[in-house]
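#onboarding

Welcome to the new folks! Below is a worked example of what a typical request in this channel looks like: someone posts a single protein sequence, and someone else replies with the predicted structure as tokens. Don't worry about understanding the tokens yet, we'll cover that in week two.

Example request:
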Amino acid sequence: MPSYDELLGLLETGHAREELSRLYGQDARDVGDQVRRYASLLREHKTRFGEASETVRLFSAPGRVEVGGNHTDHNHGRVLSAAINLDAVAVACRAPGNIATIRSEGYAQPFVVDVTDLEMKDKESESSLALIRGICRAFRDKRYEVGAFNACVGNNVAVGSGLSSSAAFEVLFGTLLNFLYNNGSIGEKDIALAGQYAENEYFGKPSGLMDQMTSAVGGLVSIDFAAPTRPLLKKVNFDFDSCGFDIVVVNTGGSHADLTQHYSGVAKEMKKVAKALGAEALRESSPMQLMDAVKELRPRVGDRAILRALHFFADNERVAAQVNALERGDFERFLRLVNESGRSSWMLLQNVYAPECLEEQGLSLALAVTEELLKGRGACRVHGGGFAGTILAFVPRDTTAEYLAKMNELFGENAARPLRIRYPGAGEIITAE
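Example response:
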């Protein structure tokens, strides 16, 4: 394994810059920024842990954008998702004993986990420490090797941005343990499942598996959760760089901290409808069954639950149609389907604002202004869980500058950000071999 100085030297080579360009794009300035980012983490690790280890390794796990299928995964539906050129990264090495020590940018104190004590701690709920401990427990339960390590971590997937900083963080640590202690033998699905387990059970946030799977696998991915623990993955072959549109996320502000009940409420209402139809999840039922039973269901489940179920059935089919459109090169149809999904989320799913905050509708405003600016040439939709946070827009490249300026004026500096799809998933990078 390479030493600190060897890795710092490797970062300056053409081979390393080519590898970084595959993760972060071809812009030389972006690649240069990443070289400096990794070099800074290497120096930090040497300062904090240099006496404990002379050899270190670099790991990266990307964030993601949700392209199709809004709130479909938790009812065994389909999603279309893409890894992006923002990520969680780590410089790490094995450590003696039983203590894993993690220094994370933005935190004064390290996270410390005894890898022989992996029971859930109530006081750690909704913390990064809970995620690390939960991932270690998931690995141990699968009989994978778990051991002590020292790591310095950075994450430019901003918390609350809707780009899944938590999944990037979870998959990063699963990847780190995979390579440090399991020779890289653990599959992407198991790493993703470990992240979901940590988030659901230890962190205490209900979530599907889309975010972790996309981070682990990379690229543009269609995922079918008909069998939730054995999801079917399909890489979608489409070059977004050549389509003449930019992918832009707009962070409209607002905290996700008090929205967990709304996220979980969507799944609960959908499953309430499914149960009334004799199924465990909506995927096991059909829109025809729902329509036949609407009158009977209204007093039992409520109107909003029925509307959300209608959204599920339509958006689940839209994902398959989006994949088909992209594979045939029909980008205009793909954009129409994105807009349909956005309208369905707004009208049926009803996750563009929190019902107790009707005066705060940043997502609604962003969608309305985006439609006005695009004038039918692009597409937009609520992004991720909704209720606050981000929208996703496909913006014609010749109007991107104008669009960014307007949205930044409306929602604050750097609120709008163009993204690129990252095709490699999580893994070890810049190796000496």
